[in-house]
From TrEMBL, chain A:
Protein's GO biological process: phosphate ion transport
Domain of life: Bacteria
Zinc-finger listed as a keyword: no
Regions crossing the membrane: 42-63, 127-144, 164-187, 229-253, 273-294, 306-329, 367-393, 426-447
NCBIfam families on file: phosphate_pstC
Name of the protein: Phosphate transport system permease protein
Lipid bilayer topology: Multi-pass membrane protein
One Gene Ontology CC term in the entry: plasma membrane
Lineage, broadest ranks: Bacteria, Pseudomonadati, Pseudomonadota, Alphaproteobacteria, Rhodobacterales
Family: Belongs to the binding-protein-dependent transport system permease family. CysTW subfamily.
Function (record text): Part of the binding-protein-dependent transport system for phosphate; probably responsible for the translocation of the substrate across the membrane.
GO molecular function annotations of the record: phosphate transmembrane transporter activity
UniProtKB/TrEMBL annotation, chain B:
Lineage: Bacteria, Pseudomonadati, Pseudomonadota, Alphaproteobacteria, Rhodobacterales
Gene Ontology cellular component list: membrane
Record-annotated ABC transporter domain positions: 18-260
CDD domains referenced in this protein's UniProt entry, alphabetically: ABC_PstB_phosphate_transporter (cd03260)
A Gene Ontology molecular function term of the record: phosphate transmembrane transporter activity
InterPro entries given in the database record: AAA+_ATPase, ABC_transporter-like_ATP-bd, ABC_transporter-like_CS, P-loop_NTPase, PstB-like
Protein name, UniProt field: Phosphate ABC transporter ATP-binding protein (PhoT family)
UniProt superkingdom: Bacteria
Entry keywords, A to Z: ATP-binding, Nucleotide-binding, Phosphate transport, Transport
GO biological process: one example: phosphate ion transmembrane transport
Length: 458, 265
């Protein structure tokens, strides 16, 4: 039935378009000059029909479930839901729904069967109503717009306004989503800080979130100091940047300045492939190749090395970031005007001098911007560290030790039974907030720098 | 109709600094320079004139091998500086460019301070041993570029913050600072006002005492004022080359005549 409503809408759009187009042609054939082209009159009708009806159908579909459910609840025998928790009410409702869908387990009570019957009939009424209303609405809109077809009617402006409105709508979606995400993050974080003091979280040096969920469970009391986790993130990100920055920069300089077209034709696609590898695969690589290699290397030297080292995760993350940095550096170098390079070469500078003294300094803001964006990716990277870094938070900056990161902890805190009312799960939001604030600050910095350097040459 | 050239009346023959024989330049399949023979004398200003797109800049860039930086560009023929083929494998284009300086059509100061812009060449060529020497070189170059008075109080400010005309004079100062033997100037005055133009022309006249200067210009008056020799290019051919006075008063080729009287280009 829903599909039917959409088909009606589609048909109405086409009909409205053709009707108005014909009408406009008829006026033109009569010798009158129209303000707008015929197509705009058709388009005006199509858009005026499409947009409101489309939103009407969507809204109907979104609301019908809730409305029907509350009608069912109201129709249950008096007192059935009294004194039940939300979980139990939901259980009953889902049972009614599955009976209505024909999946009956055991012998349900009569009132449940009755409610299920009512649910079925309400649903079909609702669908029917939707189709009827869609027909009425589209017919009304077609008639309305058909009347607008006159010589002096500014259909083009009308169409442009509607399209503009749609574009504004799309643009605001992103804004509202951002506000929603930040809002929920802030809200949950606030709830966390109601249970755990702010300073304990920010400056505590011990992270043991395994608190008892029930009264009778025996477990540690729980500690929510984020410093060791934060430190772990920093260690891994540092290792990653130590790998990624030089390799990325030098490969960009080599590709941009020295490589012959043939070599460039090979290396560039390879770097692009590297950028397209899913992070899970990098995770495999870390566990299966890098970590054992580091460990056997360490045993050869007589060093005790943990199975999950920050070094392994950081190395692989660094490799992941190489194409990111090199493509940014490449863009930055390419944005330096050719005339600067020529100017330097014409003064008798070698290519190396030109790169290090003119091109590189001119490209540095762009490169720094790219590096900062890479840092914020390193901080937020999850899959590689979940697979290759450890789970135990330690106050250490030794990259040969096992560390855990903010993202790993968020994942582990939210895996398993998740009731969002214990500090254990809420801590995940506080950590998310930390991550968000950090990457936000870095991104703002990065964008500032990138923008500033654009200004120099534009 | 034109000013008589500064010293073009007496036809002194100087030593040949750069000799070009049968030079052909191709950009991919485009034949941009066709069989050009020219001799550029030492201590002389040579002007290249001709309609837009006739290959003046292209030929100029052959003289310091700046065309090497354009992948699709191919140069054939012989170009010799002081009798030595500059396209010979034994020649290092880097050293060649230190001897043959260039000022571009569009000002291109580095995004560095004014001081650093001028000091760039002398530094990479190790021309100064002390900071004081470098200061001296920079000041002399800026004075010769006719811009010293305008920038002497703001040497540490970025060169890109100057006006277009100031930037061009800074670029001239930068090119002069390395003491080249030949200075190639591609329309150096196209962004300058008449006063700065006059100053640059004065500089060119001064440079002539020591160096050989090649200037591309679209201004007939300027060519007549500053040069002793003039080469007229048309569609990649060197149509006529000779004493500036003769070219402007008594051109042998009808194309030259129509160009300088404003009928072609
Ligand atoms: N980098 C290049 N790639 C391909 N063709 C080029 C390139 N540079 C110049 N050309 C071509 O070579 C010819 C000569 O160009 P050139 O720049 O030497 O002209 P010009 O005489 O300096 O003109 P103008 O007075 O406008 O500066 C033109 O036809 C031009 O299209
Ligand atoms: Mg030119």
């Amino acid at each position: 039935m829903t599909l039917f409503a959409f088909l009606i809408l589609f048909a109405a759009v086409v009909i409205g378009y053709i009707l108005n187009l014909r009408a406009a042609r008829a006026i033109r054939a009569g010798g009158t000059k129209l303000h707008s082209l015929d197509g705009f009159h058709g388009g005006f009708s199509a858009l005026v029909t499409l947009v409101p009806t489309f939103f009407f159908i969507i809204l109907w579909l979104m609301l019908q479930g809730t409305v029907i459910e509350s009608m069912i609840k109201a129709g249950l025998p008096d007192g059935t839901l009294d004194g039940l928790g939300t979980g139990q009410v939901q259980l009953i409702m889902s049972e009614i729904r599955s009976i209505a869908g024909g999946r009956i387990f055991g012998t349900p009570e009569d009132w449940k069967l009755e409610a299920a019957e009512r649910l079925v009939s309400l649903r079909s009424t609702s669908s029917l109503l939707l189709v009827v209303l869609t027909i009425a609405l589209t017919a009304g809109l077609i008639l309305l717009t058909r009347k607008t077809v006159r010589a002096e009617f500014r259909a083009r402006q009308g169409v442009e306004r509607i399209v503009l409105g749609l574009m504004v709508g799309c643009a605001t979606v992103a804004i509202f989503v951002t506000i929603g995400i930040v809002g929920s993050l802030v809200f949950e974080t606030y709830r966390f800080f109601e249970m755990v003091p702010f300073t304990d979280f920010l400056f505590g040096t011990s992270w043991e979130p395994q608190i008892p969920l029930r009264e009778d469970q025996i477990a540690a009391k729980g500690a929510f100091g984020m410093l060791p986790v934060f430190l772990g993130t920093m260690v891994i990100a540092t290792v990653a940047m130590v790998i990624a920055v030089p390799i990325g920069l030098f490969s960009a300089i080599y590709l941009h300045e020295f490589a012959s077209p043939k070599i460039r034709a090979v290396i560039k696609p390879v770097l692009e492939i590297l950028a397209g590898v899913p992070t899970v695969v990098y995770g495999f690589f870390a566990i299966l190749v890098i970590a054992p290699a580091i460990r056997s290397f360490g045993t050869d030297l007589g060093l005790p090395i943990a199975p999950n080292t920050a070094l392994a995760a950081g190395l692989v993350m660094g490799i992941m970031l190489v194409p990111f940095i090199s493509s940014f550096a490449d863009d930055a170098l390419a944005a330096v005007p050719r005339s600067l390079r020529d100017g330097s070469l014409a003064l008798g500078a070698t290519q190396a001098e030109t790169i290090s003294k003119v091109l590189f300094p001119a490209a540095i803001p762009g490169i720094v911007g790219g590096i900062l964006l890479a840092v914020s990716r390193a901080i937020g990277e999850t899959m590689i560290v979940v697979m290759a870094a450890g789970l135990i938070a330690k106050m250490t900056i030794n990259p040969l030790d096992s560390v855990t990161t903010v993202t790993v902890q968020i994942v582990t805190l939210l895996i398993g039974d998740t009731a969002f009312d214990s500090p254990k799960t809420l801590a995940a939001f506080a950590l998310g907030m930390v991550l968000f604030v950090m990457t936000l600050i870095i991104n703002i910095f990065a964008l500032r720098i990138v923008r500033k350097y654009r200004e120099i040459y534009d | 109709m034109y000013d008589t050239p500064a010293s073009g009346k007496t036809a002194v023959t100087n030593e040949v600094k750069i000799a070009a024989r049968k030079v052909n330049v191709f950009y991919g399949d485009t034949h941009a320079i066709k069989d050009v023979d020219v001799e550029i004398e030492d201590k002389t200003v040579t002007a290249f004139i001709g309609p837009s797109g006739c290959g003046k800049s292209t030929f100029l860039r052959c003289l310091n091998r700046m065309n090497d930086t354009i992948d699709i560009c191919r140069v054939e023929g012989l170009i010799a500086l002081d009798g030595e083929d500059i396209y010979a494998p034994s020649i290092d284009p880097v050293q060649l460019r230190a001897k043959v300086g260039m000022v571009f059509q569009k000002p291109n100061p580095f995004p560095k301070s004014i001081y650093e812009n001028v000091a760039y060449g002398p530094k990479i060529h190790g021309m100064a041993r002390t900071r004081a020497e470098l200061d001296e070189i920079v000041e002399r170059a800026l004075r010769r570029g006719a811009i010293w008075d305008e920038v002497k109080d703001r040497l540490q400010e970025p060169g890109t913050g100057l006006s277009g005309g100031q930037q061009q004079r800074l670029c001239i100062a930068r090119a002069v600072a390395t003491e080249p033997e030949v200075l190639l100037m591609d329309e150096p005055c196209s962004a300058l006002d008449p006063i700065a133009t006059a100053q640059v022309e004065e500089l060119i006249d001064e440079l002539r005492e020591q160096y050989s200067v090649v200037i591309v210009t679209h201004s007939m008056q300027q060519a007549a004022r500053v040069s002793q020799k003039t080469a007229f290019f048309h569609l990649g051919n060197l149509v006529e080359f000779g004493e500036t006075g003769q070219i402007f008063t008594n051109p042998h080729d009808p194309r030259t005549e129509s160009y300088i009287t404003g009928r072609i280009g």
